[in-house]
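During the second year of the project, the team shifted from modelling isolated chains to modelling whole assemblies. The rationale, set out in the original proposal, was that interfaces cannot be judged from single-chain predictions alone. As a representative example for this report, we include one of the complexes processed in the last quarter. Its constituent sequences, exactly as entered into the pipeline, are reproduced here:
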Amino acid sequence: MTTVTESQVRADEQQNRGCSRKRKEDPRFIQGKGNYVDDIKLPGMLHGDFVRSPFAHARIKSINKEPALNHPGVHAVLTAEDLKPLNLHWMPTLAGDMQAVLADEKVAFQNQEVAMVIADDRYIAADATELVEVEYEELPVLVDPHHAMDDDAPVIREDIAGKKEGGHGLRLHDNHIFTWEVGDKDATDRVFDEAEVTVKQDLLYPRVHPCPLETCGCVASFDSINGELTVHLTSQAPHVVRTVFSQLSGIAESKVHINSPDIGGGFGNKVGVYPGYVVASVASIVLGRPVKWVEDRIENLSTTAFARDYHMTGELAADSQGRIKALRANVLADHGAFDSCADPRKWPAGFFNICTGSYDIPTAYARVDGVYTNKAPGGVAYRCSFRVTEASYLIERMIDVLAQKLDIDKAEIRRRNFIQPEQFPYSTPLGWEYDSGSYPAALERVLEAVDYEGLRKEQAEKRARGKLMGIGISTFTEVVGAGPSKNCDILGVGMFDSCEVRVHPTGSAIARFGTKSQGQGHETTYAQILGTEIGISSENIQVEEGDTDTAPYGLGTYGSRSTPVGGAAAARAGQKVHAKAKRIAAHLLEVSEDDLEWDVDRFQVKGVPDQAKTMTEVAWAAYNDVPEGMEHGLEAVEYYDPPNLTFPFGAYVCVVDIDRHTGESHIRRFYALDDCGTRINPMIIEGQIHGGLTEGFAVAMGQQLAFDEAGNILGASLMDYFVPTAVETPQWELDYTETPSPHHPIGAKGVAESPHVGSIPCFSNAVVDAFAHQGISHMNMPHDAYRVWRTIHELGLDAD
Amino acid sequence: MASKTPIKLTVNGQQREVLVHPRELLIHTLREQLGLTGAHIGCETSHCGACTVDLDGASVKSCTVLAMQANGSEVLTVEGLAQGGELHPVQEGFMQEHGLQCGFCTPGMEVRAYRFLQENPDPTDEEIRKGLAGNLCRCTGYQNIIKAVRYAASKLATEKSREMA
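Output from the structure prediction step:
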């Protein structure tokens, strides 16, 4: 007889949903058997390297390829002139703009791709790039986005000069890309006019870079006999890349094969299509040989998609008790020389309109203006969903600014403004419908865990002794899981995602997805979801992604969409398999389906558990003994289009001690409570949170892509660009609550970006809080020691 | 270009002879001539540590070592850590403690951890952090990497005490 205990034993053996099972992908990685793009070596393969512009803005007067072509081992030098007959010298971006694949008559940012040399090996290719003679005529450079729309500003995009209409509506200036307005401006203005209290603060979210350890690259191989193009490339979204390649090249999509093998981190950097992919493919077509292009770190930092660069002004209107009545946000977004943000098509500023955060703010208005400057293009959602990081930073900083003005405790002001659990589903004034949340409980739990009252007492005591100690709070809401195809698409393709699962006769299974892991552990997590739904062990489910020949079409992995969308597809595909299995089991047991109940891995006759068929038995029967009229096999495909996005949230506290003589910050505690709905593999979730917090620490405390007045990028190598080591990185304390999403098939919301989105304002709030008693209400990131010391010095706190 | 020169290396216990250009970097010799793609290239400036290998008993960044400098040396890469089908305790530690995500930095981390634990078999967490400071990771937040190294230290100590008993 089956007992509960036996069921539990079987469930434990399956290592499915809720279990911290070890990752299925680890054995190959820990033994050096991962297969990354640069590991791919094809017979006859050549290597491409770029000639790049030393200037940020210059006209190309001439290019002399001859010395390079005469260099032994060089096979070709490609320029825009070579790509023109193929109509491949410009490509559409994901944001409704066009981008030069190779500089067409002029360069618009430093290190822009001017020509590609293709040679026998990477050393020869690098040598020959030095031999390509490019004559430039320097042009005035525009670096500061605040001057982009000045009357005398240099025109960056001559190709669209004078054009009044852009990809997102009216253009106000030759360097203007779009204006995006959301909310009720007049109503918001009225609330501000009548408010008891208002606060206003300029906030710069500097330009940063995701900087995955593996740079971008590809191996393109054209088969001229069959007219087929195969490209192995570092892509978070291989299917979309296939569509773009087909549209660009005119090769039928069925003859374009994209393969994303193991990817060494993405964080948004590997969503877009980069010139290197296109030129290497053209080179392979022209030369009839495979061509590899892998960028180096300087190229990665200086030319592939940056993130942020939002120049924001936030305003809050409130009553004297700190109850917020309205939010107003104005943003100037520096998009560089081409608008190639990776956003859903309808959202020129992404999901920035989540900027009311976790708070019940009745009225709001936000405006974002995008402008061109002489900087690298991009604007990726770096470890976040399309500008939600910027939005969360704005509201989490502004609420502290308001608290300070009213002299209300920073936890208390949050309590007074939270959306309450009974208000869900909650419609925000800027157009979102939050699915579920329990914000007050999360905050109270964290405050208790860190002894918030005790910390405030300690801070007061330290301040009295001239010490600098800050306590930061962040109670953020994320928006992930892009997305409903009614809201979100890339180049017109709706943002669904897919799972195809096939159970073999002996009861193991293979599942393929349209998403693409860059380290998130999909092979493990998806197998656990499917295992639970189907009733087989996750150990026996092989998960594959990235090969567009075999995987069903999907929109890829970014914006924490894999679990909310791909995971939902897995659950639904598993449920379809389960439903068919049940019919087969009823047939085998000669009872009606209504007489069956499910128990971990088997269907059993209600009240007669000995009368049962395990899923393994059913799988076998699916191939030799199915009910009359039923197709053989046990498989399902699900293209899941979510009804809404999901809204994970969290409550974080950071405690920082600052040395008043050096400006150095020591993160003494960082306590992070995340709620991502149903938890599938707690170990993987914790790992993702550790990683997100560390990247948040890097952004808040040290990262910035800086430029001089000539548009030279200052510090585009790891010598200068801050990537924290194990020494600087704080110790993390994690906690969780579990508020399932009501519309996701298994309640999962997605997690990997929450710690990044939520931690950055928390660090910033902590550093600023250390100076709150000195009347400081805001300091721009990054809070590196020098910048913090400058504030200390200006305040005279380092005297004696 | 200068002609190639033969060099001899003992790689993961095997004698290898390869022809290298004078300017060829060890990472390229390992990856492209010897087919050992475990060590990766992340920065080419010695900062990220993805290319870390063990050269005559010291951790080196093979993206900034010339292959000819390694002539006559013993090289250990991640592919040489497991012995006789058994994972090295360092590898086991990374797997058990979830010390990796995308896996790109992992081979360099492991080879560094292997050497570090020979230099300091019973380290504190602080010492582990310093010992691994030449290896960057963008995914894990390091906390589990530190646990992985601690796991390996403990397992190596147990193995050693068994051998001595």
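Chain A touches chain B through 59 residues (CB under 8 Å). The first strand of chain A starts at residue 46 and ends at 52.
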